[in-house]
Structures are given as structure tokens and as C-alpha cells.
Amino acid sequence: MSSAPVGIVHLSDRAPQVSGEQMVAALIPPPQFDGATFETYRADARFPLQQEAKDLLIAFSGGGAPAARGGLFRRAKKSPEVKPGVYLDGGFGVGKTHLLAAIYHAVPARRKYFGSFIEYTALVGALGYQKTVELFRGADLLCIDEFELDDPGDTMVMTRLLGELVPTGTRLAATSNTPPNALGEGRFAAQDFLREIHAMAASFQTIRIDGTDYRQRAVDGHAVVVTAGEYERDLADAAASGLVSDDAFDTLIRHLATVHPSRYIRLIEDIAVIGIRDVAPLDDQSAALRFVAFIDRAYDAQIPVRATGTSLDQVFTDDMLAGGYRKKYLRAISRLVALTHS
Q1: Distances (CA, A) of 84 to 3, 33, 35, 60, 292
Q2: Residues 270-280: tens digit of each pLDDT
């Protein structure tokens, strides 16, 4: 029996390759949601929409609430229509991915898939559109986490793909993010989603989930920064029992440009702690978006991060946070804060 790898490696030395078959096999909930169920979702009593969403999704997962029984001569009430798709609209950290995974686990289906939006679009890129359609045709359920609306091309590819699958019986569940406390924006996220996938709008029931970011409830508002000495000690301690990565921030950012985002999960395979030295603000939006995708995969895998230099929640400039990718950056900041506190 082989032991788990230990020591320190550099992510910049890794050049992972992923086949279409491996990408398909990876379409399951992240490890942190292996046991996610509706029972383990703790609705916050201060936000009644959370319990309402949970109840609606239980009905969706079971094919709809049962019709109420009538008396001997009374007609039973009809069950409300259950659409083939649900869209969970809400801020960061309110449990949307937990609920999405709970749907996946609850639906008694043989063929079901769970992946991020970028994983599905990467699969189309790897296999081609028609092969992807054939792969998913006949699937019972597709769960799509973090449905992205900022790339018109990718959005329309996904819309077309889903449009071919729904008539064959495939059910859909999707999430996306609305920045918390964003005046005006929050109430229009669902409308943005339905407008962008207009051909599929009638297939989705929008379910709003309000609340506060659970990651921020447990920690303070900034990512942890360690000193150079603390960094060396933390990585050495972790490397005694597991595999640890150690990269300069600028080197890691440059390397991410050479790896397709669909392979980032393989880039951090077997890593127990991610070490990043000399963090500095990013000045290139493409690099920033790649870093967001990298952090998404690190968060899915729940890999702690140790970093020196600038606080990781400060790497995105004000211009970036005010631009069209604001939702992505805010989500990444929330996750970076959580990972540095792990």
C-alpha cells in the first residue's frame, strides 16, 4: 500500500493533462459536498427565503409535491407545476452550492452530472459540441454551479446545449451569484440570467435565497498574511505529513496562463496546503480572471492557503471591482478569506 506523497513542490513545474473521459468522470460534487443533504442545510431563521427555497427544492428533487387528498366527493388539489429547471439566485455564502449538491444526491437517477459552468464549457471545447450533446443526451439531471453570464459565446453555447437536452427529459439545476448588499444589482440577477438564456427562460423556476455570507460570519473581513518566517515554518510543518506547494505569486500567475482553467483541479491534485510568496496587486484583468478560476478550484478542494506580501483580498484593483466581472472578484475574495483562515 503506497503512502500519501509528502514534501514541497512547485505548481509552476506542473503541466497537467486531462482527457475528455477524465473531465466527464470529474462531474460530481466537490469533496466538501459529498455528504450535502437537505437535512444538513441549516436555514437561517432570520431569512425565511432560505427555508422556502429548501422546501421548493425538496419538491423539485422528488418530482413535485404530492397532491393534497380530497374527501369522498371532493376533488383533490392539483400539484403545482414543477418546471424542468431551477435557478438559485442569491449572494455569496448562503448555501446555494450545498443545496445544488443536495439536489444531486436526492434525485434518484442513474445518469446525473454536477459541475461548474467552466467545466461544462471546457468539455464542449475538448469533445466538440455534437459529441457533448450525445454524451449528455438521456441524462436525468445536470447541475451547473456558478452559471456565468459575462461571456456571450459560452453563455449561448450552454443555452443551445441545454435547449437540446430538456426536450429529451433532462432536468436542470443552476446557481449564480449576486453580490451581497449591492443596491439594485441583487434584484436583477435573475432577470439577467433569464434574459441571457432567453430561449430557455420558460424552463426555469427562479428561487431567491437571501442571507449573509457564512464564510464571513466565522472570520474577520481580511485574508490572513503571514511573515516570511511563519510561512517557512508553516510549510515545513505541513510538508512533514503531506504535499505542499510553494510558488512566488508572479510565477504562479504566469504559469496559470499556460494551463487551461479546466486543468486547474489537476494542477492542485494531492496538494494539502498552497503556499504563495510575495503576493502583489494584479494589474491585468485576464490574469485576475485566471486567478479567480484557480481559487475556485482550490476552494472546491478545501485546500488551505498560506501567503506573504499583500493580503489576498486586496489583489483586485478598484477598477476591476467596479467592472463587469465584479461578481467573480467578490466571490473570490470571500473564498480567499476563508482559505487563509483554514
Answers
A1: 45, 23, 24, 9, 31
A2: 999 999 999 99
